[in-house]
Amino acid sequence: MAGYSSVKLPKPGPNALALIKTAVSEGVVKATEPRHVTAANNAVGNGYLKRDKQDAKTYYPTERAREMLALLQGIAEPGDLPVSADISQNLSDILPSADASGLVALVEQAGELLDAGDVVNARIIASIAYAQAKTAAQFAEQIGATEKLVAKARRMQGLALLIETRAKIIIADKWDEAQAAGKISKGGRLKPVSDGNGLTAADTGLSRKEIHEARKLAAAEHREPGIVERAIQARLSAGLGPTRANLRAAVGTASATKEARGNNLYETPPEAMHTILAFETFSATVFEPACGRGAITRMLELAGYGVVLADLIDYDTADQHGEIQAVQDFLTSHPPESGSYDIVTNPPYGDVLNAFVAHALRVFRPRKMALLLNLNFLCGFADDDRNFAMDDCPPSRVYIFKHRLPMMHRDGWDGEKASSRMNTGWFVWELQEDGTYGDKEKWIPTRRVDWQDYMPAEAAQTVESEAA
Question: What is 263-467's CATH number, 3.40.50.300, 3.30.70.260, 3.40.50.1000, 3.40.50.150?
Protein backbone atom coordinates (compact mmCIF):
# COMPACT_ATOMS: atom_id res chain seq x y z
CA MET A 1 0.00 0.00 0.00
CA ALA A 2 2.70 2.48 0.89
CA GLY A 3 4.01 2.17 -2.64
CA TYR A 4 0.94 3.99 -3.96
CA SER A 5 0.92 6.75 -1.36
CA SER A 6 2.58 9.38 -3.55
CA VAL A 7 0.84 8.50 -6.82
CA LYS A 8 -2.31 10.20 -8.06
CA LEU A 9 -4.36 7.20 -9.09
CA PRO A 10 -6.35 7.48 -12.34
CA LYS A 11 -10.09 7.71 -11.89
CA PRO A 12 -11.88 4.82 -13.62
CA GLY A 13 -15.00 5.65 -15.59
CA PRO A 14 -18.36 4.01 -14.77
CA ASN A 15 -17.88 1.14 -17.24
CA ALA A 16 -14.32 0.50 -16.07
CA LEU A 17 -15.40 0.64 -12.42
CA ALA A 18 -18.10 -1.95 -13.08
CA LEU A 19 -15.56 -4.26 -14.72
CA ILE A 20 -13.05 -3.74 -11.91
CA LYS A 21 -15.65 -4.57 -9.25
CA THR A 22 -16.71 -7.72 -11.09
CA ALA A 23 -13.08 -8.78 -11.55
CA VAL A 24 -12.39 -8.29 -7.84
CA SER A 25 -15.50 -10.17 -6.72
CA GLU A 26 -15.30 -13.07 -9.21
CA GLY A 27 -11.58 -13.16 -9.99
CA VAL A 28 -12.17 -12.61 -13.70
CA VAL A 29 -14.31 -10.50 -16.01
CA LYS A 30 -15.27 -10.83 -19.68
CA ALA A 31 -15.55 -7.73 -21.89
CA THR A 32 -17.85 -8.54 -24.81
CA GLU A 33 -19.30 -5.24 -25.93
CA PRO A 34 -17.02 -2.70 -27.69
CA ARG A 35 -17.54 -0.07 -24.97
CA HIS A 36 -16.58 -2.62 -22.32
CA VAL A 37 -13.48 -3.62 -24.26
CA THR A 38 -12.45 0.03 -24.45
CA ALA A 39 -13.10 0.52 -20.72
CA ALA A 40 -11.21 -2.68 -19.83
CA ASN A 41 -8.20 -1.64 -21.91
CA ASN A 42 -8.17 1.75 -20.18
CA ALA A 43 -8.25 -0.07 -16.85
CA VAL A 44 -5.28 -2.17 -17.98
CA GLY A 45 -3.38 1.00 -18.83
CA ASN A 46 -4.20 2.44 -15.41
CA GLY A 47 -3.06 -0.68 -13.60
CA TYR A 48 -6.44 -1.97 -12.36
CA LEU A 49 -6.80 -4.95 -14.70
CA LYS A 50 -4.48 -7.26 -16.63
CA ARG A 51 -5.41 -8.94 -19.92
CA ASP A 52 -5.36 -12.70 -20.48
CA LYS A 53 -2.53 -13.62 -22.84
CA GLN A 54 -4.66 -16.17 -24.66
CA ASP A 55 -8.06 -14.46 -24.74
CA ALA A 56 -8.00 -10.71 -25.41
CA LYS A 57 -11.51 -10.27 -23.96
CA THR A 58 -10.71 -11.85 -20.58
CA TYR A 59 -9.31 -9.70 -17.78
CA TYR A 60 -8.12 -10.25 -14.22
CA PRO A 61 -7.88 -7.84 -11.26
CA THR A 62 -4.50 -6.52 -10.19
CA GLU A 63 -3.24 -6.12 -6.66
CA ARG A 64 -3.71 -2.37 -7.04
CA ALA A 65 -7.45 -2.86 -7.63
CA ARG A 66 -7.85 -5.38 -4.78
CA GLU A 67 -5.89 -3.39 -2.24
CA MET A 68 -7.48 -0.05 -2.99
CA LEU A 69 -11.04 -1.35 -2.86
CA ALA A 70 -10.34 -3.44 0.24
CA LEU A 71 -8.76 -0.44 1.96
CA LEU A 72 -11.88 1.63 1.37
CA GLN A 73 -14.10 -1.24 2.51
CA GLY A 74 -12.24 -1.15 5.82
CA ILE A 75 -13.60 2.31 6.63
CA ALA A 76 -16.82 2.42 4.57
CA GLU A 77 -20.38 2.27 5.82
CA PRO A 78 -23.39 1.14 3.76
CA GLY A 79 -24.00 3.55 0.90
CA ASP A 80 -20.58 5.19 1.06
CA LEU A 81 -19.22 3.47 -2.03
CA PRO A 82 -20.68 4.00 -5.49
CA VAL A 83 -23.04 1.68 -7.32
CA SER A 84 -22.49 1.48 -11.08
CA ALA A 85 -25.23 1.63 -13.68
CA ASP A 86 -24.16 -1.68 -15.16
CA ILE A 87 -23.85 -3.72 -11.97
CA SER A 88 -26.19 -3.07 -9.07
CA GLN A 89 -23.88 -4.46 -6.43
CA ASN A 90 -22.34 -2.05 -4.00
CA LEU A 91 -18.61 -2.42 -3.45
CA SER A 92 -19.27 -3.28 0.18
CA ASP A 93 -21.23 -6.35 -0.99
CA ILE A 94 -18.37 -7.88 -2.94
CA LEU A 95 -15.35 -7.14 -0.77
CA PRO A 96 -14.22 -9.10 2.28
CA SER A 97 -14.63 -7.53 5.69
CA ALA A 98 -11.66 -5.59 6.98
CA ASP A 99 -9.41 -7.61 9.26
CA ALA A 100 -6.96 -6.63 12.00
CA SER A 101 -4.67 -5.08 9.39
CA GLY A 102 -7.40 -2.62 8.35
CA LEU A 103 -6.80 1.10 8.46
CA VAL A 104 -8.92 1.78 11.54
CA ALA A 105 -7.21 -1.01 13.46
CA LEU A 106 -3.81 0.25 12.33
CA VAL A 107 -4.44 3.77 13.66
CA GLU A 108 -5.81 2.36 16.92
CA GLN A 109 -2.73 0.18 17.29
CA ALA A 110 -0.45 3.18 16.82
CA GLY A 111 -2.37 5.11 19.48
CA GLU A 112 -2.19 2.22 21.93
CA LEU A 113 1.56 1.87 21.41
CA LEU A 114 2.04 5.57 22.05
CA ASP A 115 -0.04 5.42 25.24
CA ALA A 116 2.03 2.43 26.37
CA GLY A 117 5.25 4.38 25.89
CA ASP A 118 6.49 2.43 22.84
CA VAL A 119 7.08 5.62 20.87
CA VAL A 120 9.43 4.15 18.26
CA ASN A 121 6.96 1.49 17.10
CA ALA A 122 4.06 3.92 17.50
CA ARG A 123 5.75 6.25 15.04
CA ILE A 124 6.40 3.44 12.56
CA ILE A 125 2.82 2.12 12.66
CA ALA A 126 1.37 5.65 12.50
CA SER A 127 3.56 6.38 9.47
CA ILE A 128 2.18 3.34 7.65
CA ALA A 129 -1.39 4.28 8.60
CA TYR A 130 -0.81 7.85 7.39
CA ALA A 131 0.32 6.64 3.95
CA GLN A 132 -2.62 4.26 3.63
CA ALA A 133 -5.18 6.85 4.76
CA LYS A 134 -3.80 9.43 2.36
CA THR A 135 -4.11 6.96 -0.51
CA ALA A 136 -7.61 5.92 0.60
CA ALA A 137 -8.80 9.53 0.62
CA GLN A 138 -7.39 10.16 -2.86
CA PHE A 139 -8.89 6.99 -4.29
CA ALA A 140 -12.29 7.44 -2.63
CA GLU A 141 -12.53 10.90 -4.15
CA GLN A 142 -11.54 9.65 -7.58
CA ILE A 143 -14.03 6.77 -7.78
CA GLY A 144 -16.96 8.93 -6.68
CA ALA A 145 -17.40 7.75 -3.08
CA THR A 146 -19.49 9.91 -0.77
CA GLU A 147 -18.02 13.04 0.77
CA LYS A 148 -18.56 11.36 4.12
CA LEU A 149 -16.18 8.53 3.22
CA VAL A 150 -13.60 10.92 1.78
CA ALA A 151 -13.80 13.02 4.96
CA LYS A 152 -13.47 9.91 7.13
CA ALA A 153 -10.33 8.83 5.29
CA ARG A 154 -8.90 12.31 5.77
CA ARG A 155 -9.74 12.19 9.47
CA MET A 156 -7.88 8.89 9.73
CA GLN A 157 -4.99 10.53 7.89
CA GLY A 158 -5.04 13.42 10.35
CA LEU A 159 -5.19 11.14 13.39
CA ALA A 160 -2.30 9.03 12.11
CA LEU A 161 -0.29 12.20 11.44
CA LEU A 162 -1.02 13.49 14.94
CA ILE A 163 0.11 10.22 16.55
CA GLU A 164 3.22 10.12 14.36
CA THR A 165 4.08 13.73 15.22
CA ARG A 166 3.54 13.25 18.96
CA ALA A 167 5.83 10.23 18.84
CA LYS A 168 8.46 12.26 16.99
CA ILE A 169 8.23 15.03 19.59
CA ILE A 170 8.78 12.54 22.42
CA ILE A 171 11.76 11.06 20.55
CA ALA A 172 13.17 14.56 19.98
CA ASP A 173 12.85 15.39 23.69
CA LYS A 174 14.62 12.15 24.66
CA TRP A 175 17.34 12.92 22.14
CA ASP A 176 17.88 16.37 23.66
CA GLU A 177 17.97 14.88 27.17
CA ALA A 178 20.57 12.31 26.10
CA GLN A 179 22.65 14.97 24.40
CA ALA A 180 22.52 17.19 27.49
CA ALA A 181 23.64 14.23 29.61
CA GLY A 182 26.66 13.71 27.36
CA LYS A 183 25.41 10.43 25.89
CA ILE A 184 25.46 11.74 22.33
CA SER A 185 28.32 13.51 20.65
CA LYS A 186 27.69 16.57 18.51
CA GLY A 187 28.12 14.41 15.44
CA GLY A 188 25.46 11.97 16.60
CA ARG A 189 27.85 9.11 17.31
CA LEU A 190 27.51 7.12 20.50
CA LYS A 191 29.73 8.68 23.14
CA PRO A 192 31.21 6.26 25.72
CA VAL A 193 29.76 6.77 29.19
CA SER A 194 30.46 5.09 32.50
CA ASP A 195 27.37 2.87 32.54
CA GLY A 196 27.70 1.87 28.90
CA ASN A 197 24.29 3.30 27.95
CA GLY A 198 23.76 5.71 25.12
CA LEU A 199 21.42 6.78 22.35
CA THR A 200 22.04 6.62 18.61
CA ALA A 201 19.95 7.70 15.64
CA ALA A 202 19.35 4.02 14.90
CA ASP A 203 17.75 3.62 18.33
CA THR A 204 15.13 6.23 17.46
CA GLY A 205 14.22 4.75 14.09
CA LEU A 206 14.87 8.16 12.51
CA SER A 207 17.63 9.48 10.30
CA ARG A 208 19.74 12.43 11.40
CA LYS A 209 17.70 14.70 9.12
CA GLU A 210 14.44 13.38 10.57
CA ILE A 211 15.68 13.92 14.11
CA HIS A 212 16.53 17.51 13.20
CA GLU A 213 12.99 18.01 11.83
CA ALA A 214 11.48 16.33 14.89
CA ARG A 215 13.36 18.70 17.19
CA LYS A 216 11.92 21.68 15.30
CA LEU A 217 8.41 20.24 15.66
CA ALA A 218 9.04 19.72 19.38
CA ALA A 219 10.28 23.29 19.78
CA ALA A 220 7.17 24.66 18.06
CA GLU A 221 4.85 22.52 20.20
CA HIS A 222 6.58 23.49 23.45
CA ARG A 223 6.55 27.14 22.44
CA GLU A 224 2.85 27.04 21.55
CA PRO A 225 1.17 23.96 23.07
CA GLY A 226 -1.49 22.42 20.84
CA ILE A 227 -0.23 24.01 17.61
CA VAL A 228 0.21 20.63 15.89
CA GLU A 229 -3.33 19.45 16.59
CA ARG A 230 -4.78 22.84 15.65
CA ALA A 231 -2.89 22.86 12.35
CA ILE A 232 -4.19 19.40 11.47
CA GLN A 233 -7.74 20.32 12.45
CA ALA A 234 -7.62 23.53 10.40
CA ARG A 235 -6.71 21.50 7.34
CA LEU A 236 -9.59 19.08 7.94
CA SER A 237 -12.03 21.94 8.55
CA ALA A 238 -11.06 23.35 5.16
CA GLY A 239 -11.99 20.03 3.53
CA LEU A 240 -8.38 19.13 2.75
CA GLY A 241 -6.11 16.25 3.63
CA PRO A 242 -3.60 17.03 6.41
CA THR A 243 -0.08 16.29 5.17
CA ARG A 244 3.38 16.36 6.69
CA ALA A 245 4.38 19.17 4.33
CA ASN A 246 1.41 21.34 5.29
CA LEU A 247 2.03 20.64 8.97
CA ARG A 248 5.64 21.79 8.69
CA ALA A 249 4.50 24.96 6.94
CA ALA A 250 1.73 25.63 9.46
CA VAL A 251 3.97 25.39 12.52
CA GLY A 252 6.87 27.22 10.86
CA THR A 253 9.42 24.39 10.78
CA ALA A 254 9.95 24.06 7.03
CA SER A 255 13.60 24.45 5.91
CA ALA A 256 14.55 27.56 7.88
CA THR A 257 12.93 29.04 10.96
CA LYS A 258 10.33 31.76 10.55
CA GLU A 259 12.88 34.25 11.88
CA ALA A 260 15.45 33.16 9.30
CA ARG A 261 12.94 33.19 6.45
CA GLY A 262 11.65 36.65 7.37
CA ASN A 263 8.08 35.31 7.28
CA ASN A 264 8.72 34.13 3.73
CA LEU A 265 8.72 37.70 2.43
CA TYR A 266 10.68 38.18 -0.78
CA GLU A 267 9.77 41.52 -2.37
CA THR A 268 8.78 41.34 -6.04
CA PRO A 269 11.09 43.36 -8.31
CA PRO A 270 9.46 46.07 -10.48
CA GLU A 271 10.87 44.33 -13.58
CA ALA A 272 8.37 41.52 -13.05
CA MET A 273 5.44 43.89 -12.70
CA HIS A 274 6.33 45.96 -15.77
CA THR A 275 6.22 42.73 -17.79
CA ILE A 276 2.89 41.34 -16.60
CA LEU A 277 1.21 44.73 -16.93
CA ALA A 278 2.41 44.90 -20.53
CA PHE A 279 0.50 41.71 -21.36
CA GLU A 280 -2.48 41.48 -19.02
CA THR A 281 -5.29 43.74 -17.84
CA PHE A 282 -7.25 43.15 -14.66
CA SER A 283 -10.51 44.19 -13.04
CA ALA A 284 -10.65 47.69 -11.60
CA THR A 285 -9.94 46.40 -8.09
CA VAL A 286 -7.34 43.69 -7.56
CA PHE A 287 -6.78 41.53 -4.47
CA GLU A 288 -3.18 41.14 -3.24
CA PRO A 289 -3.37 38.41 -0.52
CA ALA A 290 0.39 38.33 0.20
CA CYS A 291 1.06 42.05 0.02
CA GLY A 292 4.19 42.16 2.17
CA ARG A 293 5.50 45.71 2.18
CA GLY A 294 3.59 46.65 -0.97
CA ALA A 295 5.96 46.00 -3.89
CA ILE A 296 3.21 44.65 -6.15
CA THR A 297 0.59 47.00 -4.73
CA ARG A 298 2.55 50.14 -5.64
CA MET A 299 3.03 48.99 -9.22
CA LEU A 300 -0.64 48.09 -9.64
CA GLU A 301 -1.69 51.48 -8.28
CA LEU A 302 0.68 53.28 -10.64
CA ALA A 303 -1.06 51.40 -13.45
CA GLY A 304 -4.43 52.73 -12.29
CA TYR A 305 -5.79 49.78 -10.33
CA GLY A 306 -7.32 49.83 -6.88
CA VAL A 307 -5.86 47.17 -4.58
CA VAL A 308 -7.27 45.27 -1.59
CA LEU A 309 -4.36 44.33 0.66
CA ALA A 310 -3.92 41.39 3.03
CA ASP A 311 -1.10 39.31 4.46
CA LEU A 312 -0.51 36.71 7.16
CA ILE A 313 1.88 39.16 8.83
CA ASP A 314 1.01 42.68 9.91
CA TYR A 315 3.44 44.86 7.95
CA ASP A 316 1.22 47.92 8.47
CA THR A 317 1.15 48.28 4.66
CA ALA A 318 -1.38 50.80 3.35
CA ASP A 319 -2.82 51.49 -0.07
CA GLN A 320 -2.72 54.89 -1.79
CA HIS A 321 -5.79 55.99 0.16
CA GLY A 322 -4.32 55.08 3.54
CA GLU A 323 -6.36 51.87 3.96
CA ILE A 324 -4.31 49.48 6.11
CA GLN A 325 -3.87 45.87 5.01
CA ALA A 326 -5.97 43.08 6.54
CA VAL A 327 -4.11 40.53 8.66
CA GLN A 328 -5.36 37.06 7.78
CA ASP A 329 -4.29 33.54 6.85
CA PHE A 330 -5.17 33.25 3.18
CA LEU A 331 -5.60 29.46 3.52
CA THR A 332 -8.57 29.92 5.85
CA SER A 333 -9.96 33.11 4.31
CA HIS A 334 -13.02 33.53 2.05
CA PRO A 335 -13.96 36.28 -0.42
CA PRO A 336 -17.11 38.41 0.00
CA GLU A 337 -18.43 36.25 -2.83
CA SER A 338 -16.91 33.93 -5.42
CA GLY A 339 -15.02 35.86 -8.09
CA SER A 340 -15.08 39.14 -6.13
CA TYR A 341 -11.63 40.22 -7.32
CA ASP A 342 -8.88 39.36 -9.75
CA ILE A 343 -5.74 38.25 -7.89
CA VAL A 344 -2.17 39.35 -8.57
CA THR A 345 0.53 38.23 -6.16
CA ASN A 346 3.90 36.64 -5.57
CA PRO A 347 2.72 33.85 -3.23
CA PRO A 348 4.77 32.44 -0.36
CA TYR A 349 6.99 29.64 -1.62
CA GLY A 350 7.94 26.49 0.27
CA ASP A 351 5.55 23.93 1.68
CA VAL A 352 2.57 26.28 1.76
CA LEU A 353 2.70 27.21 -1.95
CA ASN A 354 0.61 24.38 -3.40
CA ALA A 355 -2.17 24.85 -0.86
CA PHE A 356 -2.11 28.62 -1.45
CA VAL A 357 -2.66 28.31 -5.20
CA ALA A 358 -5.30 25.58 -4.85
CA HIS A 359 -7.22 27.59 -2.23
CA ALA A 360 -7.32 30.59 -4.55
CA LEU A 361 -8.81 28.48 -7.34
CA ARG A 362 -11.20 26.45 -5.17
CA VAL A 363 -12.54 29.17 -2.89
CA PHE A 364 -11.86 32.60 -4.40
CA ARG A 365 -12.36 31.50 -8.03
CA PRO A 366 -11.05 34.78 -9.49
CA ARG A 367 -11.98 35.82 -13.02
CA LYS A 368 -8.24 36.19 -13.60
CA MET A 369 -5.24 35.39 -11.41
CA ALA A 370 -1.56 36.11 -12.11
CA LEU A 371 1.04 34.45 -9.88
CA LEU A 372 4.81 34.89 -10.06
CA LEU A 373 6.12 31.34 -9.66
CA ASN A 374 9.23 29.25 -9.96
CA LEU A 375 9.06 27.31 -13.23
CA ASN A 376 9.34 24.13 -11.16
CA PHE A 377 5.63 24.63 -10.51
CA LEU A 378 5.09 23.10 -13.95
CA CYS A 379 6.45 19.82 -12.60
CA GLY A 380 5.59 17.43 -9.79
CA PHE A 381 2.83 14.88 -9.25
CA ALA A 382 2.89 13.89 -5.58
CA ASP A 383 0.82 16.75 -4.16
CA ASP A 384 -2.96 16.90 -4.58
CA ASP A 385 -3.02 20.69 -4.51
CA ARG A 386 -0.33 20.98 -7.20
CA ASN A 387 -2.21 18.47 -9.37
CA PHE A 388 -5.45 20.41 -8.86
CA ALA A 389 -3.85 23.71 -9.91
CA MET A 390 -1.96 22.32 -12.91
CA ASP A 391 -4.10 19.41 -14.14
CA ASP A 392 -7.69 19.97 -13.01
CA CYS A 393 -7.61 23.79 -13.32
CA PRO A 394 -4.61 24.50 -15.55
CA PRO A 395 -3.42 28.04 -16.21
CA SER A 396 -4.48 29.68 -19.43
CA ARG A 397 -0.94 30.81 -20.26
CA VAL A 398 2.54 31.19 -18.79
CA TYR A 399 5.03 34.01 -19.47
CA ILE A 400 8.52 32.58 -19.03
CA PHE A 401 11.37 35.00 -18.34
CA LYS A 402 14.30 34.42 -20.73
CA HIS A 403 16.54 36.42 -18.41
CA ARG A 404 16.26 35.70 -14.72
CA LEU A 405 14.70 38.45 -12.66
CA PRO A 406 16.95 40.43 -10.31
CA MET A 407 17.54 38.53 -7.07
CA MET A 408 14.63 38.61 -4.61
CA HIS A 409 16.43 38.69 -1.25
CA ARG A 410 14.35 37.90 1.80
CA ASP A 411 13.03 40.73 3.90
CA GLY A 412 15.66 42.17 6.21
CA TRP A 413 18.60 40.59 4.35
CA ASP A 414 21.74 42.68 4.87
CA GLY A 415 24.32 40.23 3.56
CA GLU A 416 26.11 40.20 0.24
CA LYS A 417 23.80 40.68 -2.74
CA ALA A 418 23.70 37.68 -5.05
CA SER A 419 22.54 36.92 -8.56
CA SER A 420 19.31 35.02 -8.91
CA ARG A 421 19.53 31.28 -9.60
CA MET A 422 15.77 30.86 -9.97
CA ASN A 423 13.90 30.60 -13.26
CA THR A 424 10.50 32.22 -12.92
CA GLY A 425 7.44 33.15 -14.90
CA TRP A 426 3.97 34.63 -14.60
CA PHE A 427 1.30 31.92 -14.46
CA VAL A 428 -2.10 33.30 -15.51
CA TRP A 429 -5.39 31.55 -14.78
CA GLU A 430 -8.52 32.90 -16.46
CA LEU A 431 -12.07 31.72 -15.88
CA GLN A 432 -13.82 30.53 -19.04
CA GLU A 433 -17.46 30.95 -19.97
CA ASP A 434 -18.28 27.42 -18.80
CA GLY A 435 -16.92 28.16 -15.32
CA THR A 436 -13.69 26.17 -15.67
CA TYR A 437 -10.05 27.16 -15.83
CA GLY A 438 -7.80 26.34 -18.77
CA ASP A 439 -8.23 23.44 -21.15
CA LYS A 440 -7.17 20.04 -19.84
CA GLU A 441 -7.16 18.61 -23.37
CA LYS A 442 -4.64 21.11 -24.78
CA TRP A 443 -1.10 22.19 -24.04
CA ILE A 444 -0.66 25.19 -21.76
CA PRO A 445 0.38 28.11 -24.02
CA THR A 446 3.78 29.55 -23.04
CA ARG A 447 5.59 32.66 -24.24
CA ARG A 448 9.22 33.49 -23.60
CA VAL A 449 9.63 37.13 -22.62
CA ASP A 450 12.54 39.38 -21.71
CA TRP A 451 11.70 41.73 -18.87
CA GLN A 452 14.26 44.20 -20.21
CA ASP A 453 11.96 44.84 -23.18
CA TYR A 454 9.18 46.18 -20.95
CA MET A 455 11.09 48.51 -18.67
CA PRO A 456 10.26 52.23 -18.82
CA ALA A 457 12.88 54.20 -20.79
CA GLU A 458 14.53 55.74 -17.71
CA ALA A 459 14.75 52.43 -15.89
CA ALA A 460 16.03 50.65 -19.01
CA GLN A 461 18.89 53.14 -19.30
CA THR A 462 19.83 52.42 -15.68
CA VAL A 463 19.90 48.68 -16.38
CA GLU A 464 22.12 49.19 -19.44
CA SER A 465 24.57 51.42 -17.56
CA GLU A 466 24.83 48.88 -14.73
CA ALA A 467 25.46 46.08 -17.24
CA ALA A 468 28.23 48.12 -18.85
Answer: 3.40.50.150
